[in-house]
């Protein structure tokens, strides 16, 4: 039988805190949010690292995993990190370690991995018991000086050890390797850059602290992705992005045309956008072929070995390669937009968005602080050594007396201190000196060392007293780093190139490939759609599933874009060439679009360039919409009309200068179309006022031709007195004229 033992108390009974739940939750959630922001998701602007990466670097340094040493098992590194510094799961720590070693993920890898560390296809790394690692030269640059009091240390989570608050950071790692992360209420996304370009920009800031972003970007051309690619973002857009710290960068795959003989060719992709998995990209392109969404694409295959080589074949030899690639850039991950949100922690640990200039300025301030702290550390070492040398010189000058004291006195240390006014440290140094070091030559060496250290001390004191001298030395250090990571080295050579996206009408080219034929689009009431060839002379002969019937029928052509207007105010676009044939009952429209069962189809029509439509909700609000604004090939469609709770009413073409509306109350109002605004989206303006009910129907007509309506028998009735119903928009209107259809519609539905 298990005996229940209550938890220990503090002497005052159970620890029950009496406070409002809202206050308790808000305070605790705020604490959690801040810990996530500062301890996990956002990098430090000084070294560009999150805590887990910093702890990995420091743990590997403590294990002496330098570039010139033998690599050790990753499991050992991960064990040290989670045991001493980072109390989290080993999987998360190992994944962070793996990413630091991947040359396709890190512009300047900080870990030299040996074994299977994953690949660009998206395959995972081997287990940490099989892989080995050590630091890279770039990592050494980040850690240089950490043992010389260059940065502050803090106790680890259990208080048994210490860890660095920040790394010395010999180069601007934040921008060089980039960073990404999602915190509570904020996120960061920083692309990688070329370290040599960043250092050049830093040198400009050292010369001219007031240099603006435009001048800095004469050196920092833009991102430099590990996987290369072609950056097609306009220069003006990038300038704004780097000035504000927010924006986006468009990057494309690098491709070339290869002739295959007899007038045929193939396209070879050698570089793909950053963070795109090659296997997923190939699958995406294959899916475009299968679903016939890329009519210009014939085939795709992966011939990659160590380097990327994707082969793309056109549908036929008449397809222009530029047109084919432009269509694929729009349809696939061959072109991506890398979001830029330079949200980082400053030196005080406060999150904020920084531009290029602010980030480099913060890095330079950090480098100056590191320089000063290392100089003071070195100065303390020099002072301690000079103190010992002073004592040794005194001993050499009084060698006979020192020998006598050591030989005959019971407490030689105390006697030495008393006789020559030495300190404990000096006396210990004299007593620890070997007999063979008492030669004249050794005395000369001591005096030489003393002179060199004294000169070095004077130089350090002079530097510490002069801020311009400190900044000059910061620049010298950066130039030394640039020689290691410069553009002439394999690691430092720029990988991403810049280009301007060509102006190619890929859609027109795709449409040109489609055979232009007349069709009739048929939509049933239950939402089954199909396209019959030619014109349907008698719609009554059409067959539908049991319980279903004709909903909408419109003539079109295979090259048309079919616009579908839903009751929730969204427009959907489908290419007429992609509609199912009329041999069967078609396909459910809801499988092709993101439509739920509660949403009805209001209207359907082929898009005609330049056409405008009056769209309105049943609540009586509407506006004029250019059809071009309604086009969107997204499955979710495009929200154009704020339809309200009652839903959309109609979307009719503007074929006149006056609009007549009728409400559920049977009142008609006519007003000029000029009173309606033209908008790309929104709720619109009030068309007619209602005490109850809403908008039922409308008609657009020319005042010169006059208004008409169609009765239940299909006969057209001329409305000669329509001007009696003419009034200002948003009025209530008057009851419909005698003989108007009882359905309260201008034409049968």
Structural notes for this entry:
The protein is of the alpha+beta class and 749 residues long. Among the domains are: 49-168, Alpha-Beta Complex (Topoisomerase II, domain 5); 254-333, Gyrase A, domain 2; 515-560 and 571-592, no CATH class; 608-749, 6 Propeller (Neuraminidase). It is built from 19 helices and 35 strands. The strands form eleven sheets. A four-stranded mixed sheet has the order 14-9-8-17. Strands 10-11-13-12 form a four-stranded antiparallel sheet. A four-stranded antiparallel sheet has the order 20-18-19-23. The protein starts with 20 loop residues before the first helix and ends in a 14-residue tail after the last strand. The mean pLDDT is 90.
Average pLDDT for all residues: 90
CATH level-four homologous superfamily name of the domain at 608-749: DNA gyrase/topoisomerase IV, subunit A, C-terminal
Number of strands: 35
Task: Give the strand order, joined by hyphens, for the main sheet.
Answer: 14-9-8-17
Outline of this structure?
It is built from 19 helices and 35 strands.
How is the topology of this model organized?
Elements: H1 21-41, H2 51-62, E1 72-73, H3 74-85, H4 90-101, E2 111-114, E3 132-135, H5 137-143, E4 153-155, E5 162-164, H6 173-177, E6 179-182, E7 187-190, H7 195-207, H8 213-216, E8 230-231, H9 235-244, E9 246-252, E10 254-261, E11 264-271, H10 278-290, E12 297-302, E13 310-314, H11 321-331, E14 335-341, E15 343-345, E16 351-353, H12 356-397, H13 399-408, H14 412-420, H15 424-431, H16 440-464, H17 467-485, E17 497-498, H18 506-513, E18 518-524, E19 528-533, E20 550-557, E21 561-566, E22 570-575, E23 587-588, H19 589-592, E24 601-606, E25 612-617, E26 621-626, E27 638-639, E28 648-653, E29 658-663, E30 667-672, E31 685-686, E32 695-701, E33 707-710, E34 716-719, E35 734-735
Parallel strand pairs: 8-17
Antiparallel strand pairs: 1-3, 2-3, 4-5, 6-7, 8-9, 9-14, 10-11, 11-13, 12-13, 15-16, 18-19, 18-20, 19-23, 21-22, 21-24, 22-27, 25-26, 25-28, 26-31, 29-30, 29-32, 30-35, 33-34
Helix pairs in contact: 2-3, 3-4, 7-12, 7-17, 11-18, 12-15, 12-16, 12-17, 13-14, 14-15
């Amino acid at each position: 039988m298990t005996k229940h033992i209550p938890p220990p108390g503090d002497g005052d009974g159970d620890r029950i805190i009496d406070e409002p739940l809202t206050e308790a939750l808000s305070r605790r959630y705020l604490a959690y949010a801040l810990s996530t922001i500062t301890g996990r998701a956002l990098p430090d602007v000084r070294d560009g690292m999150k805590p887990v990466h910093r702890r990995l670097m420091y743990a590997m340094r403590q294990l002496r995993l330098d570039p010139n040493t033998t690599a050790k098992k990753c499991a050992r590194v991960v064990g040290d990190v989670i045991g001493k510094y980072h109390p989290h799961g080993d999987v998360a720590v190992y994944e962070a370690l793996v990413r630091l070693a991947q040359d396709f993920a890190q512009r300047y890898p900080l870990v030299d991995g040996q074994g299977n560390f994953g690949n660009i296809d998206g395959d995972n790394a081997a287990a940490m018991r099989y892989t080995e690692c050590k630091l890279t030269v770039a990592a050494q640059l980040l850690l240089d000086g950490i043992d010389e009091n260059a940065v502050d240390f803090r106790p680890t989570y259990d208080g048994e050890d210490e860890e660095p608050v920040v790394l010395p950071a010999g180069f601007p790692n934040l921008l060089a390797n980039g960073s990404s992360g999602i915190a509570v209420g904020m996120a960061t996304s920083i692309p990688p850059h070329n370290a040599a370009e960043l250092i050049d920009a830093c040198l400009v800031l050292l010369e001219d602290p007031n240099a603006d972003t435009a001048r800095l970007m004469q050196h920092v051309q833009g991102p430099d992705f590990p996987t290369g690619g072609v950056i097609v973002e306009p220069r003006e857009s990038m300038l704004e992005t780097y000035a504000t710290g927010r924006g986006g960068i468009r990057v494309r795959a690098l491709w070339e045309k290869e002739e295959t003989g007899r007038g045929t060719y193939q396209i070879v992709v050698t570089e793909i956008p950053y963070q795109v998995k090659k296997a997923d990209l190939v699958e995406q392109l294959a899916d475009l072929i299968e679903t016939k969404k890329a009519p210009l694409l014939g085939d795709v295959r992966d011939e990659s070995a160590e380097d990327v080589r994707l082969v793309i074949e056109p549908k036929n030899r008449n397809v222009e390669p530029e047109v084919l690639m432009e269509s694929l850039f729009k349809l696939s991950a061959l072109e991506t937009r890398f979001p830029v949100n330079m949200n980082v922690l400053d030196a005080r640990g406060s999150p904020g968005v920084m531009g290029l200039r602010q980030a480099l300025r913060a890095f330079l301030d950090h480098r100056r602080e590191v320089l000063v702290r290392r100089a003071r550390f070195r100065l303390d070492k020099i002072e301690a050594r000079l103190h010992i040398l002073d004592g040794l010189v005194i001993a050499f000058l009084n060698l006979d007396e020192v020998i006598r004291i050591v030989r005959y006195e019971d407490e030689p240390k105390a006697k030495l201190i008393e006789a020559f006014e030495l300190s404990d440290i000096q006396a210990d140094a004299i007593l620890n000196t070997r007999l063979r070091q008492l030669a004249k030559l050794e005395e000369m060496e001591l005096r030489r060392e003393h002179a060199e250290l004294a000169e070095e001390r004077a130089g350090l004191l002079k530097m510490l007293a002069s801020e311009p001298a400190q900044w000059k030395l910061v620049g010298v250090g950066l130039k030394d780093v640039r020689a290691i990571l410069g553009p002439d080295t394999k690691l430092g050579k720029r990988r991403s190139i810049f280009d301007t996206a060509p102006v190619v009408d890929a859609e027109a080219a795709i449409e040109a490939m489609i055979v232009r034929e007349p069709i009739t689009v048929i939509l049933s009431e239950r939402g089954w759609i199909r396209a019959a060839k030619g014109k349907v002379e008698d719609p009554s002969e059409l067959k539908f599933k049991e319980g279903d019937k004709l909903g909408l029928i419109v003539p079109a052509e295979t090259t048309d874009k079919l616009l579908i207007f839903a009751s929730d105010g969204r427009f959907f676009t489908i290419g007429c060439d992609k509609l199912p044939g009329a041999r069967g009952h078609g396909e459910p429209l809801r499988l092709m679009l993101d439509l739920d069962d509660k949403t009805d189809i209001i209207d359907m029509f082929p898009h005609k360039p330049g056409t405008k439509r009056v769209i309105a909700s049943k609540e009586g609000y509407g506006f004029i919409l250019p059809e071009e604004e309604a086009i969107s090939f997204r499955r979710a469609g495009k929200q154009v009309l704020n339809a309200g709770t009652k839903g959309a009413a109609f979307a009719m073409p503007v074929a006149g200068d006056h609009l007549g509306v009728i409400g559920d109350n049977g009142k008609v109002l006519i007003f000029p179309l000029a009173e309606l605004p033209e908008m790309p989206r929104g709720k619109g303006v009030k068309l007619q006022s209602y005490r109850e009910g809403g908008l039922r129907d409308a008609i657009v007509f020319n005042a010169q031709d006059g208004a008409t309506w169609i009765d239940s028998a299909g006969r057209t009735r001329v409305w000669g007195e329509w001007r009696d119903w003419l009034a200002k928009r948003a009025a209530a209107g008057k009851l419909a004229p005698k003989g108007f259809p009882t359905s309260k519609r201008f034409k049968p539905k």
